[in-house]
Amino acid sequence: MEFYRPTSWREALEIRAAQPDALPITGGTDVMVELNFDRARPAALLDLTGVPEITGWSEREGQIQIGASMSYTAIIAELADRLPCLALAARTVGSPQIRNRGTAAGNLGAGSPAGDSHPPLLATGAKVHLESVRGSRELSIDQFYLGVKRTALEPDELIRSIEVPAARGPQQFAKIGTRNAMVIAVCSFAIALDAGSRTVGTGLGSAAPTPRQATDAQDFLAEALPWADRDPLAEELANRFGELVAAAAVPIDDVRGSARYRRHALAVLARRTLGWAWEEYRCA
Amino acid sequence: MSAPANIDAPTRDGVGDSPQRPDGIGKVTGEFAYASDLWHDDMLWGATLRSPHPYARIRSIDISAALAHPGVYAVLTHEDVPGAKYYGLDHVDQPVLAIDTVRYQGEPVALVAAEHPEIARRALAKIEVSYDVLEPLTDPRKAAFDATAPALHEHGNIVRHQPVRFGKISEGQRAAEVVVRGEYQVGMQDQAFLGPEAGLAVPTEDGGIELYVATQWMHVDLRQIAPCLALPEDKVRMTLSGVGGAFGAREDLSMQVHAAMLALHTGKPIKIVYNREESFFGHVHRHPALMRYEHGAWRDGTLVYAKAEIILDGGAYTSSTMNVVANAASLGVGPYSVPHIEIDTYGVYTNNPPCGAMRGFGAVQACYGYESQMDRLAAELDMHPLEVRRINAISQGSVLANGQVVDTPAPLAEMLDRLAATPQPEPADQTDIRNLPGGAANTTHGEGVRRGIGYGVGLKNICFSEGADDYSTARVRLAAVGGEPTALVHTAAAEVGQGLVTLQGQIVRTELGIERVVIAPADTQIGDAGSTSASRQSYMTGGAVKVACEAVREMIFERAADQFGVPADELSLAGGKIVAQCAGVLAALADFLGTEPIEAVREFHHRPTQRMDPVTGQGDSHTQLALCVHRAVVDVDVELGLLKVVELAAVQDVGKVLHRNSLEGQIHGGTAQGLGLAVLEEIQVVDGLIRNPSFTDYLIPTILDMPPMRLDILENPDPHAPYGLRGAGEPPTLSSTPAIAAAIRDATGLPLTRVPIGPEDIIHSVK
Amino acid sequence: MRSRRKFEGRQPVSEQREQIGASRRTFLVGGLSAGAGLAGATMLGGSGTAVASQSTELAAAAAPPPDTRKITLTVNGQARTTDVDTRASLLDVLRERIGLTGTKKGCNQGACGACTILVDGDRTLACLTLAARYEQREITTIEGLAEGNRLHPVQQAFIERDGFQCGFCTSGQIVSAVGLLNERPDVPDAEIPELMSGNLCRCAAYPNITAAIRDARGEG
Predict the structure, then answer these.
(1) Which of A158, B161, B402, C22 would you label with B552, given CA atoms 20 to 30 Å apart?
(2) According to the UniProt entry, where is the signal peptide (chain A) (predicted)?
């Protein structure tokens, strides 16, 4: 197996173009499990941690660019104020050790529906910046996921960064795990209120073959919330929102939980997180 | 006749002190070698091909492609087993390698030795086994009672049926004013030690084998290994390597015979290490249980009868099932005085994963059943759960279900009173999500959270029961080394983390009044020490070291009596000196010993026990009995089914505290494994297939799942045991599970009859 | 690579078993002296755990599979050059090529923490780390914490608090605790559990582990 460690983004793209079967690796927290268990025998590995252009984050016009090799630990430490939802989710990823190495871009690359970063990225309307020697393109996050562990990434492309708008209102994330730490999501949910445009974003994890938004629930809420009056949240409204979120899920029965429980839990999480977010909006 | 050493004498780091562990520095510096760390020049790696099917006939095995793989030194099947083709802990029924039938998923079928583990793995994939897949028998009730079920072994599917008939059940049923019934289930728990099965087999020039393995009982391994290799026992020399946890899972053989076979065949050292997934297939688990209970009582809460049917799924082979059945039967009503008892306990064969020893076996399952019943009775009578337990609590002089009279202190009522008096934890500070169910996963800010409190009481037999003479052997050699009296202690007892090596040093210091003690490596060059299980090693090997020290002391006194003309019974040992009652210090031990060490090898036997009568279950089957009680406080998010165990309080009678740090560690550990069984841990088996053989899906408690504990340790000595001690490692594993389950019931109002209790069991509405 | 370089104090079984009263290092590899840690206690060497740990010799015992690459790692301040399978995890390279077996393999998928090491001071799971990636980084393992015979304060605290039983997770616990105290020298008590939640202990020595970290806090 070949091993490449480019020291510039250009070089990384050239290697990727020349050898599309080279598997990109940043934190390694997903890729290495595949290698250790002999589930994957990639022809080559493309280590992106030596590429300076994709480290850290930057901000331009209210948009945060998260470099592909920025760790969860760094997201928690540096972006909790601008991207509260993503930071909350990052805090629930694996363990401190995993968070030190794992990246949101890696979560996207792996495409597992249980990845913890997906719901916040969906709820906040993130964009994925993909690049190849052919050029670059920008995909809205909901177009990125195609199926279980299948994404829109072309064989010669790399994820350069994820663009997430700085929070324009309250955000929440909640995740069901059967243990109080170091646990893969049974299901998870994120909500982001945009106080300016008076819209709502949602993201569901482990709820369908791909991470997804609950668009009906979003539309319903954007319409129904008393944005101007800032009235307390009506119980029926919260319940209806929960039902619509659950209806957007197409979960499966597996070793971690049943489809039925997942739907139920998503409804509860949706209701609760909306309640917390709305309280914050009202008091802002 | 020799003056007994006063154990309260101020010998530094003796019995009752908490000296540091002798293996501590090795363990904190990474230098302590576990079985998986072993290495030998020119060794090969062994690997095991396992059955993918829970039940199948083997039509053929073709090893030619695997054998031709470059780097492969050997591919072995059942035909290559040099001696006996079967082995077993209590009953010889398990093939070394499957012969014509596989009876569980993961059963070993063939072995490979190769120069690199990856080559071995690839060669395994090239072994072609042709199977006729059969319908697996996976329902233990069917295995027990349905005559049409396929017989998995010649003698049928019942490993053991043990009835208990005490009093006259019909009288009890007539007298009862209230009756509570329940059906309860316990899922399949795994020991999940962190250090995987591993070992190294080295062929010797005399045609024998040296084995370095992580095990709980070398001599029982030896008695199984030697016949399979067609070697006399003295040609199989075993040495204990570092053991990364055991909890019962290392009582059966795993890779021992396999590695030795490959080593004898290739003439090269063979290392085998299981990976985590293989480990889930490579050892026995805790028996799942199906239990039906019926208790009758008077309105004042006094129990008048108890009736139970307990079915324990032993899986494909016998392992420890016979003893697991005996424990569940004899301890089936727990530490309560019940005048009329009828219990039927069955251990059965199925095509599920084999089950055997795990901390507290048999007693753990029954405890969940009878404690659930005690709560049901309390609810029925509108009594406090502690009160109904107190009314029926055994004490010294009480009679147990097997007719055995409790002849040592058993202050259960006092323990319950102390538990009741233990302060309650404060309500959770809900402004910090870490204090709530779900924790940092942010699932509640207090919504749906209800607090519950529950209690559990457990009674565990200590040491082996039913007529077993599970003695231990110790050699103590006292010599002057560099001007200091130094004792060398040699036993075959397995240190698996519990701190036995520390205790051995403490006992020697106390008995011989010296400071320097060296613990020799545990191996089979000395007599049997019995198993590191049944909470027995402090009692048995501790006892053996103690009597060996007493013998050494006696020899010193005899020699000193001659030399100094002082009666032997006026002598004692303290501070490294021989001291006479009147004359004071006679000699420094080191000078006295000179170049003539004094050595004694002694066996220690506990008092005899009896087999349970096969029809009535009566008989004084237990050596010692130990009690632990728990109170659990649990916050439950009743809408999501998530929970946080807020606090666990325990009261345990240990007879005598030998080493407080180690003891508390055992109570923490036992309690945590009971917590795991209550709310987290289950090997999920569907149609005989394990669905979650990994640490991402078989979840054991993390530091965030382990609540703070309050411990209250009592010391009511058992006069039969060395220093009055009581085995302490298992009792907490019994009582924490029902206490936590009861707390969740208290919070939710749900019956919750099965452990582990998962979120979906709590979200009753979605059922 | 088929070097036969001996690892200090580690011999094959047959030699090791004969040894009595050997060097401290040999004792630490194999010995189980009840006197260890006690002033004036004699430490009898030998083979408490029977056999020397793996060493660089393993590399010879195990023929290097194809696709190897020569790399130089800086482990505990020492440069180590070895041929590795390009797919090899740092955990396997540490244990099987370099002979540092203190870092344990509990699950090989990042779910137990037994293989925690420090890379440039950050807590990292060696099983989820490709060895070939870390050529220019400072790797610290459990073997690199003590200074000569002087234990690191976290190691000392684990001994004093009995922060382990079987000890298999202990290397990972201690390295993780050292990493945690690097990150948060004044970590409040309430935050220790969450920050140590990546290290499983089946013996459940958790209360004592927490106590040890509290003791060691501020002593680093």
Answers:
(1) C22
(2) none
